[in-house]
Amino acid sequence: MKKVVVLLVCAVVLLVGYIVLDKSGIEPPSFDPKKAYEQGRAFYDNKEYDKAFESFKKACDGGNMRGCFILGAMYERGNGVEKNEQKAVELYKKACDGGDILGCRNLGIMYANGKGVEKDLGKAAELYKKVCDGGEMLDCNVLGFMYEYGYGIEKDFSKAAELYKKACDGGYILGCRNLGVMYEKGDGVRQDKRLAKEHFGKACDLGDEEACKIYKKWR
User: Directed axis angle between helix 157-169 and helix 137-149, to 10°?
Assistant: First the structure.
């Protein structure tokens, strides 16, 4: 009888061991950083910042760089978390290094204004160039402005005009107005009142009221 009981106990132990091993072999549900990001957006749009923060953190930790970018913005503004500009810079850098162009833009702004990091206009210009090369026309215009006035980089009117043209051709209003001014003054381009008027008119058509005032004076 004793031998039978021992055998039964052994059988139960083996069975339990088998069940544990069997459970350990089950694959856990796969984590989707994109879904975590989308969930974060929904919470953020609903102003549920605490929940949004947690979702964006999961997305960022999982490799979603846009999640890192927005998480940085939340740290910068103090939405759903205590304001921390140094942490914002860290997250913008992570997003930028990971290929998120808006992370590069915001990192450039932080360097330009000395927020969370030592002010460095040269570094800001490098980042704006990266964003401009990525197709963001606003940043092409900003970089053009930096070249025109020598902020953080050597003054270069020709380069400024080139960047304003790129921004204008890409549909960015201020790029058109700024290029018009360059043609009006002959800075970086051959002075040409006709082309100046043309670019003021284009800026006006895009909704730039200041450009409209200048354009109307020449009509």
Answer: 160
End-to-end Cα distance, the chain:
113
pLDDT (tens digit, 9 = 90+) per residue, 159-181?
Answer: 999 999 999 999 999 999 999 99
Q: How far is CA 166 from CA 66, 94, 140, 190, in A?
A: 26, 28, 7, 17
Q: Which residues contact 154 (CB under 8 A, 6 or more apart)?
A: none
Predicted TM-score of the model (pTM): 0.82
Neighbours of 79 (CB within 10 A): 16
List Cβ neighbours of 137 (8 Å cut-off, separation of 6 or more).
Answer: 166, 167, 170, 171, 172, 175
Backbone angles phi, psi at 189, to 5 degrees: -145, 165
Side-chain half-sphere CA neighbours of 200 within 13 A: 22
Neighbours of 201 (CB within 10 A): 19
